[in-house]
Design brief:
Strand order of the largest sheet: 3-2-1-4-5-6-10
CATH architecture of the domain at 2-146 and 178-204 and 267-276: 3-Layer(aba) Sandwich
Number of strands: 12
Helix content: 40-55%
Low-confidence stretches: none
Distance between the termini: 41 Å
CATH topology of the domain at 2-146 and 178-204 and 267-276: Rossmann fold
Mean pLDDT: 96
Number of helices: 11
Radius of gyration: 19 Å
Order of helices and strands: EHEHEHEHEHEEHEEHEEHEHHH
């Protein structure tokens, strides 16, 4: 039995589709089962609630061999540790109590770099890995760079003003990846009962790009000019807290951006195992362009 968290989320739903296509037995943890597609609901076991709840994860992990773990965003968390490590503590206890063998978790690149100690969300994510791996399960942390799909949050801005923004440097090149490739890697690991130990598994797109590079590619694919604008960290943080985000979570985003610009991802190396197939140009053709045109 494979337990899947966030089955209606952007990554979780794609992992779920692959597991069901392979005929695997799946149990999902979901707050609202009605959000599961009709075609899925009858093919999975369902445990209702939050996977941050001790009773929920204890029930869900009973009789499970493997777990897909993804911490949902908590924009109002008091600290970054609360958002990742605190949320995961009930799961860590349940993994041990219920004898789960393997966990595949969504995490980040950057382990072992100087920048990882002060990288906001990434620092907390790596601490979460340490907590879950300390239970003795066989553990694979999906060590991920920035997601191409995060650009979709600015679809309206791209469409209406030909602009996208962030606190990151416009010229620093770094890897990115598509969520379809993340889901494919996660599903392969969850379906494979032969691996053991604790390892990071990198998922890197085929090239490193700067935000200026991304703007150029968007312009070419969309057939209209798109430019990138860097926002000062303090201004970005004020904008996020203005949207209701806690001070800690907003500062965590700024710290993460600064760590990336300082080289957090620079030690990543593409190999046949770590490289993924979706280029940013292909992602723009397949995902961004239809989203922009739909508006």
């Amino acid at each position: 039995m494979i337990v899947l968290t966030t089955p209606t989320g952007n990554i979780g739903r794609l992992v779920l589709d692959r597991l069901l296509a392979a005929g695997a037995p799946v149990r999902v943890i979901v707050r609202d089962p009605a959000r599961l597609p009709d075609a899925v609901r009858g093919r999975v076991e369902t445990v209702r609630g939050s996977h941050g709840d001790p009773d929920v994860v204890t029930e869900a992990f009973t009789g499970a061999d493997s777990v897909f773990w993804l911490v949902p965003p908590d924009p109002r968390a008091a600290t970054m540790e609360d958002a990742y490590v605190g949320f995961s503590r009930p799961a860590a206890a349940a993994l041990t109590a219920r004898g789960v063998k393997r966990v595949v978790a969504v995490s980040s690149l950057g382990r072992g770099t100087p920048q990882a100690a002060h990288a906001g969300h990434i620092t907390a994510s790596l601490a979460m890995d340490d907590l879950l791996a300390s239970t003795g399960v066989h553990y694979r942390a999906l060590a991920l760079p920035s997601f191409m799909d995060n650009v979709l949050r600015q679809t309206a801005l791209i469409r209406d003003r030909g602009l996208f923004t962030s606190p990151n440097s416009p010229t620093h090149r770094a890897p990115t990846c598509a969520i379809t490739d993340i889901a494919a890697k996660a599903a392969r690991l969850l379906l494979d009962g032969s691996w053991s130990g604790v390892e990071d598994v990198q998922v890197l797109g085929p090239e490193d790009l700067s935000y200026e590079d991304m703007a150029r590619i968007m312009s070419e694919v969309l057939g209209r000019p798109v430019r990138y604008q860097q926002i000062p960290g303090a201004e970005f943080k004020a904008r996020m807290t203005g949207f209701g985000m806690s001070d800690a979570v907003a500062q965590g985003l700024v710290d993460m951006a600064e760590a990336k610009d300082a080289g957090l991802y620079d030690t990543a190396r593409r190999t046949p195992e770590t490289g993924s197939s979706t280029s940013f140009r292909q992602w723009c053709e397949d995902v961004l362009k239809p989203a922009v045109l739909a508006g």
